[in-house]
Amino acid sequence: MIDPNIEPGHRLMSRTMAFVLAGGRGSRLKELTDRRAKPAVYFGGKTRIIDFALSNALNSGIRKMAIATQYKAHSLIRHMQRGWNFFRAERNEYLDILPASQRVAENQWYLGTADAVTQNIDIVDDYDVDYVLILAGDHIYKMDYEIMVRQHVETGADVTVGCLTVPREEASAFGVMDIDENLQIKSFLEKPADPPGMPGDPDRTLASMGIYVFKWSFLRELLLSDAENPDSKHDFGGDLIPHVVKNGKAMAHKFDDSCVRSNAEAPAYWRDVGTVDAFHQANIDLTDFTPELDLWDRDWPIWTYSESVPPAKFIHDEVNRRGLALSSMISGGCIISGTEVRESLLFTGVRSNSYSVLERVVALPYVTIQRHSRLRNVVIDRGVEIPRGLVVGEDPVEDAKWFRVTEKGVTLITAEMIAKYTAAH
């Protein structure tokens, strides 16, 4: 039953801002984050990881956003300036980039996720909003945030926590919610050895997505109090949420209730592409006949910076020198010259030359692959030139001498690795 006193959705979202935490390095992505923060890592052929959180906010009706950056932020900031510069201040639309700039003290960067908001309290005050939606900028999913914000308002919660429904035996890797039958959080457990089940569903539990809704006046006081606590790590998941669970009203919101699906039967899609294996698999999954993540949905598009490039081109039609792609995604600006491409995802401007074979390859923008190369189960960083005749994916012991080979057999190739390989050959 919707409370008639609660404002309609468009009005509610106009009084809400999204604060995106995008400062994390993402060290498990290894060399992919040597030059860029995890939210700036490429995904899906033409987007960046952060585009999903921002697109969800935009599609949900939010027109006030702030992005807190810290680690190697140039690539991320440049992407924001190029792809997200369409907000108009005269229409009360704002997108602010908030680098860690020692605004509080000359020796103090962002100390934790909560501190990133605390240091920008005056900026959030200027937005003149009633509700703040805290988002992680490093996950792949499609979600209507209005449903979660509306639940927060209707229940009168102090905080509402976005939650994934996960099998109980897998929940030990997450921060877990122990809830009652009304979805009120009784306790917040960080990576418990024996996760609690859900009322009526003991085999599954709720895991935090790192998404929180607060009334700004409440969060503001909470942040100021936390800042004065010398024992706090100034983190939402580690400090603020457990405090509210213990001393206030914390509610869980099920992602299943607000996930944007291509059809009613589709599963709730959420991925943390935080390892090279997970990154490779999530990209390759998009080449499936019916991928779980629908990037073709025009009702809930993923917005991004889109370069002006010509269409992909396939040339040569001879035996062993045929430009073709099967079960693959090929972005604009690519030239597939006499190369066989299977189950692969090629980003903008990739060029592959004759007599080469690519299988389950994720090639980031402007990769060049010279002739007679054979690559299998590979992630290639932006701008890398693969030398003539390189074979990767057939001998993991040899591959590991020059490149990074993961536990699941995916090989990561960067420009520095190619330089060492070339110097030795």
UniProtKB/TrEMBL annotation:
Q: Which PROSITE patterns match?
A: ADP_GLC_PYROPHOSPH_1, ADP_GLC_PYROPHOSPH_2, ADP_GLC_PYROPHOSPH_3
Q: Which CDD domains match?
A: ADP_Glucose_PP, LbH_G1P_AT_C
Q: Does the keyword Nucleotidyltransferase apply?
A: yes
UniProt keywords (A-Z) are: ATP-binding, Carbohydrate metabolism, Glycogen biosynthesis, Glycogen metabolism, Nucleotide-binding, Nucleotidyltransferase, Transferase
Where is the site described as Could play a key role in the communication between the regulatory and the substrate sites found in this chain? Q70, W109
Q: What are its E.C. numbers?
A: 2.7.7.27
Q: In which pathway does it act?
A: Glycan biosynthesis; glycogen biosynthesis
Domain of life of the native organism: Bacteria
Name by which UniProt lists this protein: Glucose-1-phosphate adenylyltransferase
Q: Which gene encodes it?
A: glgC
